[in-house]
Amino acid sequence: MLGRAGILGIADRRVEKCSGGQQQRLRFAMALVSDPGLLVLDEPTTGMDVEGRRDFWDAIRADAAVGRTVIFATHYLDEADAYADRIILLRRGQIVADGTAAHIRSLASGRTVRASASNLDADAVKALPGVDYVEARADTVTIRTRDSDAAARYLLTHTDASDLEITSHNLEDAFLALTSDSGGGDIPELSRPAEEGTK
């Protein structure tokens, strides 16, 4: 088990002498001892370095490939996006979205427009059609919008914008859109893709 967890080289070390990431890997090895069919992990990569995280997820993928079910809670949305077949988002203890990463990303309609701009009128940008969110920090502006063309056109014609970038929403954008309190505080109706064979 220590080999699968990537800590065989520290088998003789006392636990209190291990780093946080090594202790996390030890917990993973201990969870595998009984060869469970279902593995439940809470924030499994907290404290791990980049290499440790990658090795951990390689081991989890290998386990899943042979039929082990793995359920994990994480705040690292990039990990959920890369490794989870199904993602459930919670807000105040209630499920607000349940589906694949692609399905959940699709719930956050629109795109993100980023640019460098020093003479930005944030109120004018907020008034553009389709704009949901504007953040200006130093000389960088981030706009979440359903009309990226209008936002880009405004930035290029009314500001000194440079380094303009338009991207589709990622899982973090969807998470923020679905769990934020800015929408009036009501928990949205559960968004789940239709099950096969149902209407």
UniProtKB/TrEMBL annotation:
Gene Ontology CC annotation, any one: plasma membrane
Localisation per UniProt entry: Cell membrane
Annotated ranges, domain ABC transporter: 4-46
The UniProt record lists the keyword Transport: yes
Biological processes per GO annotation: response to antibiotic
Annotated keywords: Antibiotic resistance, ATP-binding, Nucleotide-binding, Transport
Membrane topology reported for the UniProt record: Peripheral membrane protein
GO terms, molecular function: ATP binding; ATP hydrolysis activity
Superkingdom, natural source: Bacteria
Main subcellular localisation: membrane
Protein name: ABC transporter ATP-binding protein
Organism per entry: Arthrobacter oryzae
